[in-house]
Amino acid sequence: MAKKHPEGYLSARESRRISKENRRITAQFEKKRKRKKVPESEYLTQMHDSANAVEFDNLHTYFFTDAGTVKSVDGVTFDVPLGKTVGVVGESGCGKSVTSLSLMQLLQRPQGQVVEGEIRLNLGDGKAYDIAKTPNETMQSLRGNFISMIFQEPMTSLNPVFRIGDQLDEVIELHDGEGKSKEDIKRRTIELLEMVGIANSEGVYSMYPHELSGGMRQRVVIAMALACNPKIIIADEPTTALDVTIQAQVLDLLRGLKDKINSSIMFITHDLGVIAEMADYVVVMYAGRVVEKGTAQDIFTNPAHPYTIGLMASKPVVGKQVDKLYSIPGKVPNPVNMPNYCYFKDRCEMQCADCAGQYPKEVSISDTHKVSCYRYYEKNRKGGEA
Amino acid sequence: MGLTNKGLGQGAGRYHPGDPTGKSPEELKQEQEKRAERVRKGMESGPKSGSKLYIDNTFDPVTYDPQYILMVNALKKYFAIKGGMMSQTVGYVKAVDGVTFNLKRGTTMGLVGESGCGKTTTGRAILRLSGEKTGGQVLFNGQEVYDISNKDMRALRTKMQIIFQDPFSSLSPRLPVGEIIGEAVREHNLVPKAEFNDYIDQVMDNCGLQPFHKDRYPHEFSGGQRQRICIARALALNPEFVVCDEPVSALDVSIQAQIINLLRDLQEKFKLTYLFISHDLSVVEHISDAVGVMYLGNMVEYGDTADIFKNPLHPYTKALFSAIPIPDPNAKMNRIVLEGSIPSPANPPSGCKFHTRCANCMAKCKTEAPVQKEIEPGHYVVCHLYDN
Fold this sequence. Notes:
heterodimer; A: about 375 residues; alpha/beta; Rossmann fold; eight-stranded mixed β-sheet; five-stranded antiparallel β-sheet; 13 strands; about 35% helix; B: about 400 residues; four-stranded antiparallel β-sheet; 11 helices; about 20% strand; globular
């Protein structure tokens, strides 16, 4: 009798074969990446729309693990317009963070690789770089100056053994420090701390992270991200670890700063309430793909994809009493072994006959509102014939 | 300094041959007795009112009312701060500082507040999970929880259970799920051996787990499934009262909904009473019949969910509710942003503890601590604004 293995079981031989194959693939990527003196022409591109700060175009980011290839980001396309806030929402494991890490080129290499697609970063004056192909040395000058990131856990993103001032000074010195004296840099740091609403900025300058509360730490991390006036700020769940009252303070701060420094924000969160408050545009992700995108008005007043609808119904809202919360049945499919039909089909309660077919392409509902679902194919077709 | 009122004097009871002061043994004995007397008096009076170490333990005892499964009266739980050479107590962290509420049988009470306000400590103190209380009363079915012998407490534990926040650290990674759920059942001899397996299957089924999950280990489950295991473990003992300590905070939105629905179904089925601790106000509004709002160890407002959410009275409750993000881009925001953060519970502000952040602070608030008042039937608030 053959031994019955639980789901997801891999024999040692199979696992060895996979890891050997992975090494072969990742070595190719790494070889390409490690070349010295890559000519600029190789990663210079054109923005499709010069009003965008970043364009993600058919981005595929895979992780080559010993259990198989995890397609964390599997064909993601969306734009971040200049001076606007784009909210990316989805459950844990849907690829929100990996999308932003791809933009920063902070993926865990060599396992994690951008295998396909472009990320076009607008440098101004009609110049644009394809981040997916940009070499490390150039990236170093882009990070901080053009793109910067606010992480979720302020305690883990600050170094516990250095003073707040030293950590902020270092950022300015590395990215923007040419021709600046120590005093200039310190003045700039104090200015930044005041900008994010820290009253006792001189005192905080010489404090250690553990002496500050969670909200204050997050302010310091925000100051660090703003140090070199970046064009794009990626905020990766900046308020998830904070209390509601502190969250309100930090959101107020971010909104105010966005107007002040006129940069774009890519706001990643799983909290629909925070998104509604902050974002101009919303991107809903599920299992590594964008299922729906549009303006905040589109998504919240007229959600189209069954997943978005389910997500909204499953969150209790103050002031709206329901007897029973809606809960999306089933769970997210195994990322190693994705089905070849719509990833949400097995959990979807609004299926139609088409759903058994290929993964649905994106359809436009309105100029700004796009959704990947067969239900809107039907509608569109009928509308076209009439 | 060293010899003031700490312990008996160093010389007590010791024989001093050839005392250098030249006093007779009788005189020395008298002196010793006088000293011992001073020490005894000092111990009886204890730290004076106004001192950092003074614990005010006066409260009006409540009498048991059978409609309430749990009556908490002026409950205090302080944690000693040790310091100095001899690890003396130099102060207290007043984690829970006089919390009073009653919980009706078969209902859910939500406990909300910022982190560090004492929600979790209240929950644990009610279950007698964090050592002795500092003061007040906890009556469970009319029985003072802290007066029971350890042996009887063990038996009582089957009636009061807890579900912890983090399903990743509250399950032993070395035990299979069947054992995690069944361990306490066997320990308390709740079911005969022959029916044991069927009983566990039944419990797991109630919580949405399959019988074949029994032999798996916690790491094989997702967050939502693990929280189901935690719930099954608590329910296997057939409790009357369950403290849910942030059971959905670590979960995704869609999983949250599943767990909340499960908790509600189980409540209807087994007539459970919940104390639901959470910082997510929308979840609390959904699940609770009554809500208590805590700030720095005190319960500042307490009443029916509908009353509290429609008509919040305390300035802190108002600020807290206005900070909830609403998933509607058209929603009007008149947000009251609280400045600063929660003060240290080791050195709380005098008078009303909220006065440092309060928008309606009056002179009275800085010196005089407000008392609990009933504004509407069943709606209590602790604030000077409602003195008249």
